[in-house]
Specification:
mainly alpha
Length: 110
């Protein structure tokens, strides 16, 4: 997942109600569906965090003086972009509903 994927995502930025029957349709078990989406949300969160830290590293200044703190408009824009993104769980739910998450039940495959 890269910045363009996040920018073009149709995931909601606020809370929305999802039909339970639609959400667990693929697995037949709401708890399994939520578990799969939650695991994907953790993956998305770590990808976003890694990408953000890489971008902010470009702006890092290593000095011991607190008086040399200054505003960097590019850094502020990067931070605002990531703040306005949908939350990782919303992105994961969108991927789940659009059947973009590959999953398998290892207990059934013997």
């Amino acid at each position: 997942m890269n910045m363009n994927d996040l920018k073009n995502s149709k995931a909601p930025v606020s809370t929305v109600t999802i039909n339970k029957n639609e959400f667990d349709q693929e697995t037949g078990n709401i708890y399994e569906a939520i578990s799969i989406a939650a695991k994907r949300a953790v993956q998305i969160n770590s990808e976003i965090k890694k990408e953000l830290l890489e971008k902010l590293e470009e702006f890092a200044t290593y000095s011991d003086s607190l008086e040399e703190v200054f505003e960097n408009k590019e850094q502020i824009e990067v931070s605002k972009f990531y703040e306005k993104l949908p939350k990782p769980h919303a992105l994961a739910v969108e991927e789940w509903l659009n059947e973009k998450i590959y999953h398998r039940n290892t207990d059934k495959e013997v």
